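Practice record 12: protein with zinc ion.
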Amino acid sequence: MYAHPLKRSWPVHAKPHLPSKICPVCERPFSWRKKWAREWESVIYCSERCRRSKYRRVQDSPASQET
Ligand SMILES: [Zn+2]
């Protein structure tokens, strides 16, 4: 009997070495996605939502700074 080499090609605990960036809007890290394969260099925001909200962030932030 042969062992099945394909079964061992993707260890469960192995993390893929994908590049990641931190979204300046939500300040959360996001990883490379296949849809960004051609434009990863220019990707800044984690999602279209953040990309749009960058214009609103200052306005939406509450003005109260009481401590
Ligand atoms: Zn974001």
